[in-house]
Amino acid sequence: MALLLMCCFSSSAMACNVPVFRYALERWTPDSCEVIVFHQGPLTGQQQQELTHLQQSSLSSFSDASPQAIDTDSSSVNATFRLVDVSTSPDDSASLLCDQLKQQNVPLPWVVIRQQAAGRPINAWQGTLHEAAQIPLLTSPLRGELSDRLLSGDAVVWLVVRSTDSDRNKEVTGLLRKKLAELGQNVPLPEGIGLPGSELFSDIPLLMRFTVMEVDPDDAQEGFLLNLFQGFEPEALKNGTPLVIPIFGRGRALEVIPADRLNERLVEDLTLFLCGACSCQVKERNPGFDLLMTAAWDEQLFDEGPRPDPAAANPGLRQSSETEPSNSAALVEIPAGRNSGSASSSEPQPRIEGRTAPEATRESSSFRRSLSLLIIVLSVFAIALRLYVSPSA
Fold first, then answer.
1. Domain 33-134 bears CATH identifier 2.40.30
2. How would you write 30-58 as a 3-class SS string?
3. What proportion of the chain, given as a percentage, has pLDDT over 90?
4. For the chain, N or C: smaller number of CB within 10 Å?
């Protein structure tokens, strides 16, 4: 029995107590989108310029299925570029797309952006190379604002895609602001944050802060995201129903929710999930999909330097303070984590949030070990006493 208790306690101690939203921010690398440019034969000078304009300096890597190769600078967008000549026969995942494009007789060069959603690849956007060069596919003001807010301590950003029904829009944003203000004050974080296995690796404050942002469905600068979200619920906006998307981590959308399915209970359930312990640390086993974004996540999280100020970014977006619960931000006190000197220099070191009250001083690791041992002893004693006083069979 004692051995069983020891095993259970050991399993519990090894569990990760970091909230899902913070675990995703610090530990989950965004899925890479694939930007495939289908063409036939060499690109013309104009097409080459459009391709260069499309990738610009935000390209992370470039793989080429044709003899041509384009020299690009590395950056922080989670996308890879490919050139696929339809006159050849690609022997990978692009072959099916290549055959479909030939059957549909689309004008070349043709661009397809593929990404993972619900464990399978989807076509997030497609169009001519000329169209792709005219709209911001890889970055946009909204995505810049999202990354700034997530990197400055927002736990979850609730994005509302407006519909043509202004009353319905106000109803949805009002419900979110009211409920999130309540949750920001009452939702507890998991116990044990900062203990071994549950360290925070960034000095970004751990805040119970939730932001509501809105975007117009006709915003040309956000065409890529709007096309992606509407693809999940194509009839919602047509029927005057706004879409709600909770976004956390490094730009991971939990799901696309039509407002007619949204209520306070659902908002609370999703918030409790995102603020609860990350019981499943394998990213692919968690719900959601990553947005195509340009952000220096690792540099902002783990290197020294100023973090982005969300209040000063992109004033044109409807994310002013009136959309944020005024009482939803609270600095959470957590115990000290692993000694930074015990980790190798190659991994990000945990940054510890200090306690603010004088009486909340550091808790030594020896005290925690003693407390753990005491809990084990008392548990064994309680079970033994119960067996002793119970009548024999």
1. no
2. CCCEEEEEEECCCCCHHHHHHHHHHHCCC
3. 51
4. C
